[in-house]
Amino acid sequence: MIRQRQLWVLAGTRAWAREAAQRYASDQMLWLGEPPPGVPGGPAREAHKWLGRELDLLVVDAWAGFDVEAFGAAAGALRGGGLLLLLTPPLTEWPHYADPEYARIAVHPFTPEQVSGRFLARFVRLLRQHGVAVLGEGDALPSWQPVPAVHPADWCTAEQQAALETITQMAQAAAPAPVVLTSDRGRGKSAVLGMVAARLLAAGVQRIVVTAPRLAAVDTLFEHAARGLPQAEVSRGSVAFPTGVTLQFIAPDELVHALPPVDLLLVDEAAAIPTPLLERLLVHYPRIVFATTLHGYEGTGRGFAVRFQQVLDGRAPGWTAVRLSEPIRWAADDALERFVFRALLLDAAAAEDAAVRDATAEDCRIERVERDALLADEATLQQLFGLLVLAHYRTSPLDLRHLLDGPNVSVWLMRRQGQVAAAALTVREGGFDAALAQEIYQGRRRPRGHLIPQSLALHSGYVEAPRLRGERIMRIAVHPAAQQRGLGTRLLHALIEQARSDGLDFIGSSFGATAPLLAFWRRAQLLPLRLGLTREASSGAHSVIVLRPLSAPGRALYDAVRARFLAHLPALLGDGMEEVDTDVAAALLAESVADDSSELDAQDRRDVESFVRGWRGYEVCQVALRKRVAAMADTAPLSAVQRELLLAKVVRRQSWEQIVAAFGYNGRAQALAALREAVAGLDAAA
């Protein structure tokens, strides 16, 4: 039991809890919240800065805001024999405490005071159920001392050694097949990747590339690689020799864009990288390792396993699975690990396949479930969250808190004999007054939440959009064992009818665009109104907003935005959005008709004004600007340079890089400012 980790709750006044926690100060400690002078740590939102190290003592000050993701991630850095001190108000009071984290959950017009304490109520209940030590101001504080490390830094378990050999053999094989390495936290996954990189570089491999959602996620990998290559030159994210032999970190989006030649690609925390990006890497690199944490904080490995296995089976049927199950940092069956898994629902599982395998759209019951009822029904909550984890690559503990506490969130369940076969989360958006809608349109206000109405105002240029009220479908998921039988379509239609019954103006959604997803939403008449200008880091795809009008004002806005989107789409895809997926572009272009009119209408003039004033960017206003420049008179009071700039960018559609080089600007920002000034001068002459 010496390597078991402990969790103690110091529940009382904040001053007492802080003073008590300082009695346990250790050389290897971290304080998340507001650390006392001289104590390492800082705000919980910056926890990632200190991870990648092993801790003896972790202090989490929930008085400063209980950041659930930082709590879970930092707990994984606590080694065997370590102590986690959680500083809270008295447990009976904690669910009613005005947690500073509520500012992240409240959306306009709700205030942090209107956020519920359901998540904390459940957390307190689980603390008691798990028998966690709770110490109050009248209690004697027990003694604790750090436990010396059990194993040397280069020690390997038998599982690690087997994984090391499997990856080495694949990297040296004439006909390699991908390796998928999975484990829970603390099993030495990153250490294996670092050791195999060191072994292969020492054996003559020239270039190994590592990619992951963040550089900090692979610090441990590089640490182990550097330890095995004492002659190398080491810097953060790089291990290199003068001969050109290198181990280098490259971010996923940069890697997919450049696709440099490599001898071996190591993809760590793959569950947090969008499947489309992983598939591109799989197709391009024959020697590749995908590693991921099954119950982690970078992304969820269980959903990754379900989704990506299908891709692997189709693209590389000879792939090998390797699993690490033996803990290294702490003892097996660690009590803290069990508690964190349950409290943050990292161990949540969807319904058993057999329970929903025969489900049909007709024999499932659809209901909007109250969150208080969900809080009292742990089994249903686990099935719901487990299903969301399977369906989305980056479902996190913060999503659980939003699900339970978000004041504008609705939870929908589709159940067969009590088992969750499908689910949806929706949020209410819009309903702003005219003054605030104008400020949103001008980019001067950005109230939290309200993605669709704000985007249609700020990016599409429709000032009336924020005044309408609608429902955004944030998540919709069908159990993998019950898919392709109409459950998702029926649930979607139920959401539409409820939104109509509630008197809303629209129902919509926003997601990373793929051709199959566009087809799913199209079947329910939710059609695209906007396409994001760049690939989102979160999905690896261009986001798309789809919408279906439900009222006369909703129809008027929809018709205007949809017609303009379809008319401008060919120009957008040809200037600034060349990387849109081919299938997505084809699906969107199928209904588009290029705007060949040379006359500026009222919306065109609003686009020109919003560009000149800096309210909107060039790309979303370019069609109107093209019309305006085409009508440029010889008498316009512009300099020769301004005329040439307008022709080069707006008419000849040169890239920003070309404009910067040709006109000698110091970057895109200066070029954009010059273009705005030129259009303003042109507009002043009108």
What keywords describe this structure?
686 residues, alpha/beta, Rossmann fold, Aminopeptidase, 4 domains, 21 strands
What does this structure look like?
Helix content is 40%, strand content 19%. By secondary structure, the chain is α/β, with parallel strands linked by helices. The chain has 4 domains: 6-135, 3-Layer(aba) Sandwich (Rossmann fold), CATH 3.40.50; 158-324, Rossmann fold (3-Layer(aba) Sandwich), CATH 3.40.50; 365-589, Gcn5-related N-acetyltransferase (GNAT) (Aminopeptidase, 3-Layer(aba) Sandwich); 602-684, no CATH class. The strands form 3 sheets. The chain has an 8-stranded mixed beta sheet, covered by helices on one side. A hairpin with a 2-residue loop joins strand 9 (233-235) and strand 10. The mean pLDDT is 89.
Quick synopsis:
By secondary structure, this protein is an alpha/beta fold.
Total domain count: 4
Runs with pLDDT <50, length 5+?
A: none
What top-tier CATH class of the largest domain fits best?
Alpha Beta
How many β-strands, per DSSP? 21
Question: What is the terminal-to-terminal distance?
Answer: 82 Å
User: For the record, what is the CATH homologous superfamily label of the largest domain?
Assistant: Gcn5-related N-acetyltransferase (GNAT)
Write the layout of secondary structure elements.
Blueprint: E1 6-11, H1 14-22, E2 29-32, E3 41-42, E4 55-61, H2 68-75, E5 78-88, H3 118-129, E6 133-135, H4 158-172, E7 179-183, H5 189-202, E8 207-211, H6 219-227, E9 233-235, E10 238-240, E11 246-249, H7 252-258, E12 264-267, H8 275-284, E13 288-293, H9 301-315, E14 320-324, H10 335-343, H11 353-356, E15 365-369, H12 371-376, H13 378-391, H14 397-405, E16 409-416, E17 419-430, H15 434-441, H16 451-458, E18 469-478, H17 487-501, E19 506-512, H18 515-523, E20 527-535, E21 542-549, H19 552-574, H20 582-589, H21 602-612, H22 618-630, H23 640-651, H24 656-663, H25 668-684
Parallel strand pairs: 1-5, 1-6, 2-3, 2-4, 4-5, 7-13, 7-14, 8-11, 8-12, 12-13, 18-19
Antiparallel strand pairs: 9-10, 10-11, 15-16, 16-17, 17-18, 19-21, 20-21
Helix pairs in contact: 4-5, 5-6, 8-9, 21-22, 21-25, 22-23, 22-25, 23-25
